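Hey, quick one: can you model this chain's 3D structure?
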Amino acid sequence: MARTQGAMARFLDSDIWYSFTRSPITVASAIVAFICIGGAVLAPWIAPHNPFDLASLQLMDAFKPPAWTEEGDPTYWLGTDDQGRDVLSAIMYGARVSLLVGFCAVLLSVSVGITVGLAAGYIGGTTDAVLMRIADIKLTFPTILVALLIDGVVRAALPREVHDQIALYVVIFAIGISNWPSFARTVRGSTLVERNKEYVQAARVIGLSRSRIMITHVLPNVLGPVLVIATLNLGFAVLAEATLSFLGVGVPPTQPSLGTLIRIGNDFLFSGEWWITIFPGIALIVLVLSVNLLGDWLRDALNPKLR
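Sure thing. Here's the predicted structure for all 307 residues.
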């Protein structure tokens, strides 16, 4: 307990916490991101309705406008969609899927990127040349194009029923495997600096294995830039998932994300039911913007040249 309190006291007295509290935009972004993520995680308990419980849906409640309009229903604050689902609840549940895809895709990118970057930077030579050329080739292909290619291959190889069951995992893999080069290049650059320092040379002298040196000695000292890139890539991954779902190749309609909700609402945008697509779009923008602002602050806070 005392150790935990001591760690908390050191954190509150650190430069990072001081930088955080001195930036009103960062504090506001953190609050907004916390609300968005908290609402998504706690959706089953705090959402006004369960929009995916077919037994509770009423088609007679379809296309109800927001509650503050003349024909609005106070039961549905942001109105309902074409199936009578509460838009606010659908946004909260949809954000769960979008954030799940974003976090898992970033975790996959980080895992692959760190592995490749450590191997390339520490081993060097032919290994470095081959791995970095693969990363360079990957950087020439846009993320959406790679994701569409992977999704198309899976759709052609598997029956539709099976594809719908694993669609979420396909999207996570497609986005995650597309973004690892940025992590690999950053880790490689940091590893090239760290591998010539005294503590690494001392580890070699006492006979530690190459893999142990990379994992226990080099890796902890290159995680700072990785954390910054991961924060920025979370927003990018959420946007990529929304784009794929809007194009109809993302998660299935039974697990709608924010992108799926925007695509559904887009069909009714010009018929007057603007709220079905506008509110999920606003939620997506607010979520991604708050995460990106936090990533920008973290990049500056961890940059020793700006301290």
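One thing worth noting: The chain has 14 helices and no strands.
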